[in-house]
Design a protein that fits this description.
469 residues; alpha/beta; four-stranded antiparallel beta sheet; 14 strands; 15% strand; globular
């Protein structure tokens, strides 16, 4: 089964290649990248400060240095540490490391009482706090024993790791084998779209073929698709090196940014992927982000997550799973698929509209608590009346999230505004008043035009009648 890229449960890698759950919360406080000269015992010496300071490590990985290949290695570490202890750690790491960079989002609080991204470029601060990187694959992954595939995955991960907001997404030259895998999936899914996909997906897909190079023998470039999405709804794609935590992934949606993978699944199993890949992102997600109602609905989930307690973020992540990933909607009396996990999976797209699964009405308060299994086809789906209806329901749910402020997105500055004071309320009311003034003016103009048209039609009718007499 082709499972989608819904926010996963946070996991930490251990030495034997397995996984253990992280402690309660949203994971490590801090991430650091430091570079070491290639010499015997270098890593042991570099990790000694962590032990001496009593700092608990959650994740560590290495990769050859991009700046000094063959001479240095970069080490990425997640751990629990802030404040003065972090300062001491950095100072001690500088003794044995060529470079030290703190990557994590800052733990400081702002006037809202908690930290979360306020500007779109703030996404840079946690975009690399990923749960897996490059060639790290589970033992049951189709590409686990393929060194060429693992090396290729790492190339894609490095592209994303060095990406910053505002930069063009690097273009990739896909191999004939990768294009063949895409072509197989593309052909099988496009046979089902006319009868199984929602009308919004079917409306946009030909436009993507025309403007972004969607076709059997070509894998579209993320930058081309991102540019097209931005013209349609303001959404844009950002390359990601691996799976993000639920909180970080949803925060991107608040700014109409979708973190997208660029690699493709292993060619030995074109109809299955254990994690999101470029087929899932471009065939499943991208088309719907071109639709204004769906874009608003997706952003609403992201905005609701900002500053929310962990348990509510988990409910929002589950809601995301059963809507944006595996959602069904009602159109012209029929049930259609709009979830990306369905629209990118040949098998589950057929399964979801059969009589096998249970279909329940979408209710965020109940949907957010529903358990699910990522390793099998879903036995339960949730049905939305429309994207607008789903957005309203999510909006009502977000009002119950215990946070002492409201959130408003400013599309002109691509930032979120915290509404927690009389001055903030006054500023919002002025902007709403201005928008209402435009609406009132438009209504008057439309009313005047309609009246004039009706009078003209009446006069023309009377003249014709008189002439006949």
């Amino acid at each position: 089964m082709d499972q989608g890229g819904a926010p996963p449960t946070k996991k930490a890698r251990v030495e034997d290649g397995g996984y253990i759950p992280c402690q309660k919360g949203d994971g490590p406080n801090t991430s650091i990248v430091f570079s070491l000269k290639e010499r015997k015992g270098a890593l042991f010496s570099a990790l000694k400060p962590f032990k001496d300071l009593g700092i608990n490590l959650h994740h560590i990985e290495s990769r050859p240095s991009k700046k000094h290949p063959g001479e240095e290695y970069d080490f990425y570490v997640d751990f629990d540490c802030t404040g003065r202890l972090l300062e001491q750690l950095v100072e001690q790491l500088k003794v044995s490391s060529a470079t030290v960079s703190v990557l994590s989002r800052s733990p400081e609080k702002d006037e809202a009482g908690v930290w979360f991204p306020r500007r779109i470029k703030d996404l840079d601060r946690f975009a690399n706090q990923i749960l897996s990187y490059g060639a790290e694959l589970d033992a049951d992954h189709p590409g686990f024993t393929d060194p060429v595939y693992r090396k290729r995955r790492k190339e894609f991960a490095d592209i994303a790791f060095h990406y910053k907001h505002g930069q063009p997404i690097p273009r990739v030259k896909y191999t004939p084998e990768e294009i063949a895998t895409w072509g197989t999936i593309f052909c099988e899914l496009t046979k089902l779209y006319p009868t199984h996909a929602c009308k919004e997906h079917n409306h946009v897909f030909p436009l993507l073929m025309e403007n972004c190079g969607y076709r059997e023998d070509n894998i579209p470039q993320l930058q081309d698709v991102s540019d097209f999405l931005k013209e349609c709804t303001g959404f844009q794609l950002r390359p990601v090196a691996g799976l993000l935590s639920s909180r970080d992934f949803l925060a991107g949606l608040a700014f109409r940014v979708f973190h997208s993978t660029q690699y493709i699944r292993h060619g030995s199993k074109p109809m299955y992927t254990p994690e999101p890949d470029v087929c899932h992102e471009l065939l499943g997600h991208a088309p719907l982000f071109c639709d204004p109602a769906f874009a608003r609905f997706s952003q609403e989930i992201g905005l609701a997550s900002l500053g929310a307690p962990d348990e509510y973020v988990q409910q929002l992540a589950t809601l995301y799973w059963f809507t944006i990933e595996f959602g069904l909607c009602k159109q012209e009396g029929k049930v259609k698929a709009y979830g990306a996990g369905l629209l990118s999976s040949f098998g589950e797209l057929q399964h979801c509209l059969s009589d096998k699964p249970e279909v329940r009405p979408l209710d965020p308060f109940k949907t957010g608590l529903q358990k699910y299994n990522v390793t099998q086809m879903q036995p339960i789906y949730f049905l939305a009346e429309s994207f607008s209806d789903a957005q309203e329901k999510v909006n009502e749910f977000s009002k119950t999230i215990p946070r002492p402020f409201a959130i408003r997105y400013n599309p002109y500055t691509q930032s979120v505004e915290v509404i927690n004071s009389s001055d903030a309320l006054l500023s919002v009311s002025r902007e709403i008043k201005s928008e209402l003034s435009i609406l009132e003016d438009g209504l008057k103009k439309c009313s005047t035009t309609t009246t004039a048209t009706a009078d003209s039609s009446g006069a023309g009718s009377g003249s014709s009648s008189g002439g006949g007499t």
